[in-house]
Write a structure and sequence with these properties.
This protein is an all-alpha fold. The chain has one domain. Helix content is 36%, strand content 0%.
Length: 148
């Protein structure tokens, strides 16, 4: 009986020493700004007249077209929220872009985005791809908001 009881313990110890007892799954890669985020910004934020692209209104100073979107977003002060950044690398909860897209805004922080170009009202339900904010944008920010 002692042999039967000690054998599994011996195998467990040997397996943990050699590193084959548990294999770690590879860390998931962060979403790509260029491949996954820019196309959504371009389609829903930069391509409509009066928005964040070629023909903005007088009150819009943020250009979200592909060539400049990263420079305009990452580590840039959020004009509508004192002390906040549009995108703060590593901190999705402190990134104003997330709040603009989810509608988590305070007084005088503007409208939830994206908006309807004709009415100026937030589009409800949001036309952003399902899961974009939680499964692409926030993980990208959490992983350091790299320009890749």
């Amino acid at each position: 009986m002692k042999r039967l009881r000690s054998a599994p313990v011996s195998l467990l110890v040997a397996a943990s020493v050699c590193g084959c007892a548990r294999r770690e799954a590879p860390a998931p890669s962060a979403p790509s700004f260029r491949r996954e985020i820019v196309p959504v910004l371009d389609r829903h934020c930069a391509s409509t007249k009066g928005c964040h692209g070629v023909d903005p209104t007088d009150s819009v100073s943020l250009d979200l077209r592909a060539a400049g979107a990263y420079r305009q977003l990452v580590n840039q002060a959020a004009e509508a929220r004192a002390g906040a950044f549009r995108v703060k690398p590593g901190e999705p909860a402190a990134s104003f872009l997330v709040d603009k897209l989810t509608g988590t805004l305070g007084p005088r922080e503007g409208k939830s985005m994206p908006i309807d170009a004709q009415t100026g009202a937030p589009i409800l339900p949001s036309p952003l791809p399902p899961g974009f904010i939680d499964h692409v944008l926030k993980p990208w920010i959490a992983a350091g908001a790299r320009d890749q």
